[in-house]
Amino acid sequence: MTEKINITEESELLICDLQFFADKDGKTEKPTARKRSKAREEGQVVKSMEINTAFLLIFMFSSLEIFGPFIYGRITSIFEDTYILLPQLDNIFTNTYMLDFGPHIFSQIMIIVSPLFAVALAVGITISYVQVGWHPTFKPLRPKFSRMNPISGFGRLFSKHSLVELIKSIVKVAIIGVVIYSSVIDEVDNIVLLLDMELLQMVQYIGKVIIDMGIKVGMFFIFIAAADYAFQRYEHEQNLKMTKEEVKDEYKMTEGNPEIKSKVRQKMREISLRRMMQEIPKADVVITNPTHYAVAIQYDSNIASAPIVIAKGVDYLALRIKSIAGENNIEIVENKPLARALYQTVDIGKEIPPELYQAVAEVLAFVYSLKKNM
């Protein structure tokens, strides 16, 4: 008896533990296409800024290496222009000199940074386009008062997203430290020789070391970017998940309420049936099974080149067709195979197929002869 009690208690504990892992919000369903589209319009897309950072580091430092001689020449030109003014220190701060020299220096600085700015802009746009495509929106920039709530803001400080960001920051700092340390260790022998180098050689050497370190950091950042993108995709999917009730509500909004749609279809069937019954008095003959099928045929050479099925039905509806035909003195002809074939192959308002011409023509000829004798 004691063993049974222990087993029961363990089972209850197990159930409680499993409930701990359950989705407290009840969001267990995958997001619908409409939910994804709406989230994209709101600016909620899978995007990792670490990918932009990694490629920006690689391309920017590579650009420094490519445009290094150009930048050096421009900087040298600025210093030369500045040294020319040294003999004229008494007049350098006058309005005339400032209006002439200031715009000149500013234009030279803009020329220096323009290649780097163009590369950064091109890389940023390209990487963002590869990640999320072209869908510009300003909705994420709109102020949201919910973000000003101190309680929710305090909660975000200890969220899973904040924890991941903290880990990323620590890893990035560690990578930068390791790369700088390894680069300095590798260049220890050359650093000692800096005192014997000329200024230009010293600048070129230091610039090369910095560029190499920047490219190495960017290459290591790619691994962080890949892991961050995977996490961003996972978090995005979790945020978009829906409850079963939300899925039902969205289905009602997009596809319509099933009950209303059913009532609409029923109403349309009633209208179609009423219209069909109103057409029966125009028939030339009703071909029956005799109990299960009834098909009303009309032939008017001015309307169509072949006889048309204007009404058809089975069981109770077949009895209604025959009843209306009897009330309007329309001939009812029993032909089991023809009635079944017409019902199964010809829709209401359509001409009979050529393979049934002969059989229907014989029935119509019989009906016309009866009317003539009468």
UniProtKB/TrEMBL annotation:
Membrane topology: Multi-pass membrane protein
Main location group: membrane
Subcellular location: Cell membrane
InterPro entries: FlhB (IPR006136), T3SS_substrate_exporter (IPR006135), T3SS_substrate_exporter_C (IPR029025)
Transmembrane portions of the chain: 54-72, 105-130, 166-185, 205-231
One Pfam family named in its UniProt record: Bac_export_2
Keywords: Bacterial flagellum biogenesis, Bacterial flagellum protein export, Cell membrane, Cell projection, Cilium, Flagellum, Membrane, Protein transport, Transmembrane, Transmembrane helix, Transport
Superkingdom of origin organism: Bacteria
NCBIfam families documented for this protein: flhB
Functional summary from the UniProt entry: Required for formation of the rod structure in the basal body of the flagellar apparatus. Together with FliI and FliH, may constitute the export apparatus of flagellin.
Family: Belongs to the type III secretion exporter family.
Protein's name according to its UniProt entry: Flagellar biosynthetic protein FlhB
Species annotation: Defluviitalea saccharophila
